[in-house]
Amino acid sequence: MSAPMEIVLSADSGGQLWNCAVLELHSGTNLLAYRGGNTSSRSLTVLNGEYILGAQLGKNFINVWEIQRKDQLQQKIVCPGIVTCLTASPNGLYLVAGIAEAIYLWEVSSGNLLAILSRHYQDLTCLRFTDDSSHFISGGKDNLALVWSLASVVQLDPSHTPEPRHVLSRHSLPITDIHCGLMGPQARVATASLDQTVKLWELSSGEMLLSVLFDVGIMSVTLDPCEYYLFCGGSDGGIFQVSLCSQSLSRDKTFQSDNEGNQVFKGHRNLVTCLSVSMDGTLLLSGSHDETIRLWDIQSKQSIRSINHKGPVTNALIIPAPANMFLPDSRPGIPLPRFSRHLNPSEHGEGVETGGVCLRLAPHTQAQRETYLEKADKLYSIMSAVTDKSVFGDGENTKVRVSELEEEVRTLKKVNKDLYDFSTQLLTKPI
Amino acid sequence: MTKCKKKKRQDDFQKVKLKVGKTKPKAGNATNINFRTKGINLTEQLKKDANAPTTHRKLNIKDLLSQLHHYSGTVKQGALVGLRELLTLHPSELDQHLSSLLSEAAAVFTDKDPNVRMSATRLLRFIAQSVPAERTSPFFPLLSAHLSCAMTHIETGIQEDALKVLDVLLDHYPALLAARPALLLTNFLELISHRSTGGGARKGQEGKGRSWALSVNPNRNVTGQQWRLTVLFRLGRFLQAVVEERRGEEGVACVSGDMFSVLNGQGGANAPLELNWEELTYGKGGFQVFEHSGAMPTPHSTFKLRPETEPGAGVSEGLGTGEAVRGFASTLVPLLLDVWVEASASDRSKTDSAHLLTPDAMSLMYQVLSILQLLRKLAPQREHQDTLDAWFRSEYLGDFKQHFMKNFPYGNLDTPKQRRKTDPKRSKQAPTIPGQTVEPLALNVLLCQVMVSMVTLSQGEGPAQEPDAEWLMPLRGFVQETMSSGAKLSQRHLHTLLETVWRMVTTQRSRAVTEDLLQAVYVQYQQMNLNLQTRTLLLSFYSRLYLQEHNHTHIARSRVLSRWLAALPLQLSQLGHRNPALSDRLLLSIQAAASRGNKALLNSLRTHACKLYDPQEGSVVLLPAESQQRLVQLLYFLPVMSQGLLANLSRCCTAGRVSAGLAASLIRIIHLRSSLSGWSVGSQDATLRDVDYISFLFSTLTGFSSDELATLQEAGDESVLPPSPLSPLSLYPTPLEQFTHHWDVVEEVCHCLETLGSRSQCFDVLQNGICKNLMGLAVVPDSMAAGLLRAVARLLDLSFLPSEPLLRFLSRCCLSLLSLLLTLQQDTASENNHKREAVWGACVAALSSVPRLLRLVLQSLQVRDLCEEELPQLAQILSLLLQHTALCNQMLANATLLQRIIQDLTRYCRGESKEQWMTDLLYCYSVTMATHHGNLGLRDIY
């Protein structure tokens, strides 16, 4: 059997046996099932093709599997609160999670928590990256969708609170789903909301292009890769297809009235919570609260396959099959570090702004190198600590300080070894 | 050489020799008289041209125009007056000769005779009044050329009159004038100053590189100050025109001037498509979302590679770019300062207190300040404005502080009478300017605005902010005092003051200051009897402020703001239906705050919710549909829904004052908020108890409150169909509108009930509800009966056995509805079609999904009890049921019952008239039986 090109990744909130299942797209055969826990909605994501991450339903941690090891969790990332949505950037460098009303941004290579963005007023519902990982969009229950530029968020200047590039504030009820199209910062973004509308925005200008009002609240939205169609999953179980460009200048309008109502995919009996379109734009995947996943042929709008789940479906997405998934002996290219729970721990300790920027050139240069500015700062602080101590002679304070410094220094790598020797000499001599 | 000359001369003056006896040669200039004359008789001189109308002096337009070239001033003036007369009498002439008229009239702007100039101005005003701007635009370059020629004329009289011409143009064609501001601006400068020639003056100045200096022309018949005032007044108006022109170009989005008028200023250039799903499906074909099929980004993209325009230099570039504006400002502002300094110095001599100003000085200062304010607004884009403000601050803050702020709250010096006595002639001659009397309040308010605009955003609070605080103190004091004094302010002043407050609040990041200022505004807000505009202005000020709170913690924590928010729901409920526009405003603010989960607002909303959603006089039924929708959406954010509120909401849904679609979305929103819906992300405590939710659904399903049902039971026979053996319950026919509304609501409720979870439990709850509340009714509204049948059919699970009393009640309902159906069918009006279909559908669905129900219905049909008229009805019901394919099998299951009924029927019916329905019934019966037997037969074969 040749390796499948595209797979379906799905998770439900009630299953006991497994957390998320991998299905072959065209045949519907069950390929894999990852065990442990349940994943909350819009929080299942594949990181860099090597890890699968899913936020635990109702708990404050994220389950992480290595993609080839389905039986065992690689780690649990403990978070400060219940994770409501989660996504990884397509280039695999960043991880974004919505925790209550704040957005947490981690750097994958180091595990550092880079930013906590609290611009939303209520819980987040959805996070999406653009395909070039330059921007991400967050939607919340406060009716707002915010467009963030990753570059402006990831900055070392703590005094400057990052502002979203655009605030999309035309919805009047909570946003339920966001889809970001292709073409990076020139993409178009579709947002669905309980106010029964789906709105299409232009990412570059933040302007609304289109708003479609439906009869029911819309729980999920997606665009096909060509952006010909907009698919909207309603709260009554219908999936509505909106054609975004009139493909044929058909003059026979009478003919069109025959296939009226033909633009609805009917089959689900409850909220359609997730939608996804295959790469070639012919198949539509939908997951619903009626505990089924359905696969539809877009052209004929028929349900091809229906797969039963054990609970309301929380995640269902079509992704290109990661290379490692079916090779049990493979290893991920980078080991996943421990994710920190606090913002910039080293900087909190010092409280002084360093002017350096950490550059990570490639995945294999994992060793945590400090910039020369940081090194110089550290050296300076050690020296000044010595002089402080010798001048003031404050016994306890200096001891605490020394131990702190020693700890820091111990963490330095081989490169700092001579520095370490030198400083310990300096530190121990006056005592 | 001399010889040659001589020879020539001789040739010229040849001597003619006269000889006696010969005829005298004719002189060269002799007249040839060999001609004859004839008289030509003109019967009429200056025959009146039929097509050319004339003035009372019998001059047509060509004559008049040609007279304008006459050397005599009187003739020219006469011609101008004549033109005006002609044009008033014959407006059609204006259209034909506009180009020549304008060019000739403009040519005499620079005439030496003041009377001619005055008449020319009058003529121009007349023309301008009757010709729209777009028709003048081709001739406008000519006009403005003549105008600037007049403005720069060496004679002062012509200069002064040029300003009057400018007034006319500003009145009627501000946009045209503002389109090319560059030349006029230099002209203005030249009117009050002169460009210092060479570098001498420049070196003399304190190195500031000024190339313009104020000038005084002693020849004028007004004082230098008054002259400057008139010039500045025009300059101000002109700049205003430029600013407005620009605003028109760019749309409202990026202009900060209208900060309070547009609440959600998102109106970009390309309006988004708003579509409706219904239209989309059934309406006309496709639509195009992406221009250029998405290949090119729209020009509003925020990604920019470099500034669109290269930095230009100086005034000559016009005011298109930020740099150009800055260049112009750097010329103008020192001049303005000089003007004011001179004026204040001369004013100081007349008064002892520096706070008091003469009216002249006051209006001069007003003009100076308004020009400064306009200069700020000239910046083409928002970001330019910020840099411009910063530049103003760096350049002129010191000057402004020294000259304007020193004696800040200015008052009026009340001594104009004395001055007039001393110099009556001059004051009479002084040009009267409309805006000359300036009240001190306006001046002070404007000064506040100008000064506050200089405050830049402080990066970090600290000593850097201190110097600002020192001069801002009196300003703040003034603003607070003015606002909180409780006096009514005019719309314009209030707007300016609010902008000032806005600026102060956003720049001064101190909580105490914010609190004081907002409190002052709140005093204004709380005034009674404000007119709509003022009220809206204040409202949008607060709501904008609230929307901005995210990056200003001091605003977010403001107690005044939260008090304002908390008062909103009460205001909304008190407002009722009196002012829908204002209610809409209020709702917008409430919605914004609710979506942000503002505690104060939500609490107040909770307390006033019952009043707002009252089915009789709550806002939700009184306001127009759009506001109703907002109110319904607001429900989502309510932290707790009490029982009373839910009862009210249920009544709202069923009473029909809210459209069916909106009622459906209301039910859906409540469904989402209940814990049973299953849609919730993250932690969320349920806002309503499940019991309450289900009872809400049930009462919405019934569609009538218990009181209404009770009154129906006691209602007389005239409104109610009486009970009969064929319809055991007496039905109350609801009006068609209410029926369809209720039907739509029922569909939604059923959908909610279906998705609740376990169906059998859900049905159990429904059964209990029906048994407890509805079983005893003798009079049942038909919509309710149909709704119940519909719900039962949709919800019943095969595994669940409904209780006997319920089935009995339902069978009665069903039978009554079927007989109602027959009466409805007699009435062939098409509007009843929907109702008929709904009733029939409900009955069939219930009968086919619950076999026991059909049996009960058939059992209750006792032919013996029927009178003769009812027999055909019964037969019709039966044949209807028999004809329906879905019911066919079930009818067969009850074949014995059927047979008995039909036998009874044939026994009881006599006479020929009834043959028709009888044969129909028998035919249906036999067909059904036959197919059944056929099926059986087929089955036997296989």
UniProtKB/TrEMBL annotation, chain A:
InterPro entries named among the record's database cross-references: Quinoprotein_ADH-like_sf, WD40/YVTN_repeat-like_dom_sf, WD40_PAC1, WD40_repeat_CS, WD40_rpt, WDR18/Ipi3/RID3, WDR18_C
Lineage: superkingdom: Eukaryota
Any one GO cellular component localisation term in the record: nuclear pre-replicative complex
Keyword field: Cytoplasm, Developmental protein, Nucleus, Repeat, WD repeat
Alphabetical GO biological process terms: DNA-templated DNA replication; rRNA processing
SMART domains associated with the record: WD40 (SM00320)
Subcellular location: Dynein axonemal particle; Nucleus, Nucleolus; Nucleus, Nucleoplasm
WD repeat residues: 117-152, 189-211, 265-306
Residues in WD repeat-containing protein 18 C-terminal domain copies: 383-430
Family: Belongs to the WD repeat IPI3/WDR18 family.
The name this protein goes by in its record: WD repeat-containing protein 18
Source species of the chain: Coregonus suidteri
Organism classification: Eukaryota, Metazoa, Chordata, Craniata, Vertebrata
Automatic annotation (TrEMBL), chain B:
InterPro entries in alphabetical order: ARM-like, ARM-type_fold, Ipi1_N, TPR_TEX10
Swiss-Prot/TrEMBL keywords: Nucleus
Location of region: Disordered: 411-433
Localization per Swiss-Prot or TrEMBL: Nucleus, Nucleolus; Nucleus, Nucleoplasm
Residues of the TEX10-like TPR repeats domain: 560-930
Naturally occurring in which organism (per UniProt): Coregonus suidteri
Name of the molecule in the record: Pre-rRNA-processing protein Ipi1 N-terminal domain-containing protein
Record family assignment: Belongs to the IPI1/TEX10 family.
Record flagged with keyword Lipid metabolism: no
Domain Pre-rRNA-processing protein Ipi1 N-terminal: 136-239
GO cellular component, one term: nucleolus
Record carries keyword Transferase: no
